[in-house]
């Protein structure tokens, strides 16, 4: 399994959102296509938002 960082998850979410917006007319009539895309976008968004809420580790000067 590949771990994605917050920025990669945000980018994936935005790209899927662009696909959904750009092809809305077709996707409205094809829920078997739009549903998995919507779920993937929402999952990516949820994950990057959750990562964003985690406290940043404190760094100690060397």
Describe this structure in words.
The protein is mainly alpha-helical and 62 residues long. The protein has one domain (6-51). It has three helices and no strands. The chain has helices spanning 6-22, 24-28, 31-53. α1 (6-22) packs antiparallel against α3. The mean pLDDT is 81.
Topology:
Layout: H1 6-22, H2 24-28, H3 31-53
Helix pairs in contact: 1-3
Question: What is the helix content?
Answer: over 70%
Quickly count the domains. 1
Number of strand segments: 0
Please outline the major beta sheet: none
* Average pLDDT, all residues: 81
- Given the helix and strand composition, which structural class is it? mainly alpha
β-strand percent reads under 5%
Rg over CA atoms: 16 Å
Annotation field: number of helices: 3
Shape: elongated
Could you list the spans in which at least 5 consecutive residues all have pLDDT below 50?
A: none
Distance between the termini: 33 Å
Task: Give me some keywords for this one.
elongated; 62 residues; mainly alpha
């Amino acid at each position: 399994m590949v771990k994605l960082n917050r920025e990669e998850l945000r980018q994936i979410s935005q790209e899927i959102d662009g696909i959904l917006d750009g092809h809305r007319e077709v996707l409205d009539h094809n829920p078997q296509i739009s549903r998995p895309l919507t779920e993937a976008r929402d999952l990516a968004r949820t994950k990057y938002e959750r990562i964003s809420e985690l406290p940043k580790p404190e760094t100690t000067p060397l």
